[in-house]
Write a structure and sequence with these properties.
This protein has about 400 residues and is α+β, with helices and mostly antiparallel strands. It is about 25% helix and about 15% strand. It has a 5-stranded antiparallel sheet. The chain has a 4-stranded antiparallel sheet with strand order 2-7-8-6, covered by helices on one side. The C terminus is likely disordered.
């Protein structure tokens, strides 16, 4: 899933690609998208973008004299699992382009597209950031830090630190690969209680005797968890490209993969948290680690987003593992019905000397059998099967020959 750095890189891409482009006409939405229509039409307008955490704002600004007269319109995008922006020729649009902004003539016809293969991404009209999301870890570090330390009484901090890091009320922009990298660098067990980790930061105050340069050096040499929530995403932004995901291009993805120290790296351990998301780590998982799942199944979302490998169906929290399938069960014993249908075969299986000695002239004794319970009648008379050794029944109006 695109995280804070990917949204920030996407906003940079839109601003650079659209800096010299003038757009015109209506905004087109694909027929299959369930997102709202964008009621905007202008003969000439420009597009700009900004990002905050896991949201991106796209602003459509009409040029002076454009017709019809139109106020600027802003859209808020959340990328879901696979959202991204691309610029392509208008006659060769990429698949899954669910929102399209066309350039105005003259000149080559280009289109800015919001591409979303899985259609989990969303856009909303109005341009207001989601009120339930906290300050951005990249662009609002001081507000972000204050918001976390001021709200440590919140019940989310009773949970493991790896789960608290995904709560966008406090860690807006942190996602699955970022939490693994941050905790790995500090050697913090992912299932340590979040409040235990963060309360120590409230008492940590730099000495007033240190100069400003000494304080900066101390932070760089011994950063705490909240500082890494700011600096680690900045490292991904400095990689350039489009960030996480092989769809960003092999060159970009190779640089990102080389940057990773923990997430998906061979030799690391992995567990699923209570949301079914995989957390990668090294060493002890911590006191709040979930119980190991004996079935070792992986959720569908996790295989697509976290591991990229096809796995089994969804299961409970636990270590990802594979097991051999259980051995097939033995064939069920032959039933009494089968014995009645094949009396010769059944008799042949009986050992000698076990059959009862009967008078050849005596009629065969009837065996007592338990009466079987028949299913409740459905209202239709049940048709009796005729015995093989009995004569056929005569139809009404005819006599037996």
């Amino acid at each position: 899933m695109p995280e804070g750095p990917e949204l920030h890189l996407a906003s940079q891409f839109v601003n650079e690609a659209c800096r010299n482009l003038v757009f015109g006409g209506c905004v087109e939405k694909s027929a299959v998208s369930r997102n709202p229509e964008v009621p905007f039409e202008s003969s000439a307008y420009r597009i700009s973008a900004s990002a905050r955490g896991k949201e991106l704002r796209l602003t459509l600004s009409p040029l002076p004299g454009a017709q019809p007269p139109q106020e600027p319109l802003a859209l808020i995008f959340r990328f879901g699992m696979s959202g991204s922006f691309q610029v392509a020729p208008s006659d060769a649009l990429p698949p899954h382009a669910h929102l399209r902004f066309h350039t105005a003539p003259p000149g080559p016809q280009l289109t800015l597209c919001f591409v979303d293969i899985r259609r989990f991404g969303r856009w909303d009209l109005g341009g207001e950031w989601h009120p339930g999301r906290g300050p951005c870890v990249l662009l609002e570090y001081e507000k972000f830090r204050e918001n976390v330390l001021r709200n440590l009484a919140d019940k989310i901090f009773d949970r493991p630190i790896c789960e608290a890091l995904l709560d966008q009320r406090f860690f807006n922009g942190i996602g699955n690969y970022l939490r693994a990298e941050i905790l790995y660098r500090l050697r913090i067990p992912p299932f340590e209680k979040a409040r235990t980790v963060l309360e120590a930061l409230q008492q940590h105050r730099p000495s007033p005797e240190l100069t400003l340069s000494q304080k900066v050096r101390a932070k760089l040499q011994n950063p705490d968890l909240l500082e890494l929530c700011h600096s680690v995403p900045k490292e991904v932004v400095q990689l350039g490209g489009k960030g996480y995901g092989p769809e960003s291009g092999e060159e970009d993805f190779a640089a990102f993969r080389a940057w990773l120290r923990c997430y998906g790296v061979p030799g690391m351990s992995s567990l699923r948290d209570r949301q079914g998301r995989t957390i990668w780590f090294q060493g002890s998982p911590g006191p709040l680690a979930p119980k190991v799942s004996c079935r070792g199944q992986v959720s569908k979302e996790e295989t697509q987003e976290d591991t990229g490998r096809p796995c089994g169906r969804s299961g409970g929290p636990g270590v990802i593992s594979t097991q051999d399938p259980p051995p097939p069960r033995k064939a069920p014993p032959r039933t009494r019905k089968a014995q009645r249908d094949h009396p010769q075969q059944t008799a042949a299986l009986e050992p000698e000397g076990t059959s009862l000695q009967r008078d050849p002239g005596a009629p065969p004794a009837l065996e007592k059998r338990k009466r079987r319970k028949r299913p409740a009648s459905s209202g239709c008379p049940r048709r009796r099967k005729a015995k093989a050794d009995s004569p056929p029944l005569a139809r009404e109006g005819t006599s037996a020959s």
